[in-house]
Amino acid sequence: MERSLADLEVLVRNRICSVCTERTIEGRCGLEQPSSCALFRLFPQVAQAIQSVQSDDIQQYIEAIRRNVCSVCAEQAGDGSCESRQQVRCAMDAYLLLVVDAIEEATGKTFDRRGLDGAGSGVATRRPPKAATSTVI
Fold it and tell me: Mean pLDDT over residues 67-89, rounded?
């Protein structure tokens, strides 16, 4: 299924921005400079990198992102390290699994998640904090 880049961006925005930890209570982007969001600042490269992968192995998607997106991102140092990525401040990296899923779904590919737990993938996943529990004795 062929989708325009603009269509893909709308789909990804709808999927990612609604769960982003930077979102305000009013539902708007809470970043000081919304244009600084690596996911959408580099969205053409993100979409191309994801669509270039023909695999169910998330590691191949990560490698494509590092090679085609992170390598041109101003946040990444010359040695390949990235403080934003390490501090889980890069939406592209933090939500990579959701981004891959949204783009692949929109273009008609299904992503096989069997055996995928995110452990050791190198991709940060943001989960809601666990509710505090108390034990009454």
Answer: 92
Domain range list for the chain: 5-106
Tokens read off for 62? 């990560």
d(CA 117, CA 78): 30
- Answer whether residue 89 shows pLDDT above 90: no
- Identify the residue whose tokens are 């890069």: 90
Question: Are 65 and 42 spatial neighbours (Cβ–Cβ below 8 Å)?
Answer: no
Could you tell me if 118 and 125 are in contact, meaning their C-beta atoms sit under 8 angstroms apart? Answer: yes
CB 94 within 8 Å of CB 82: no
Q: Is the pTM of this model over 0.85?
A: no
> What is the distance between the terminal CA atoms of the chain, rounded to a whole angstrom?
58
Q: Beta partners for 82?
A: 76
Tokens of 17: 């921005």
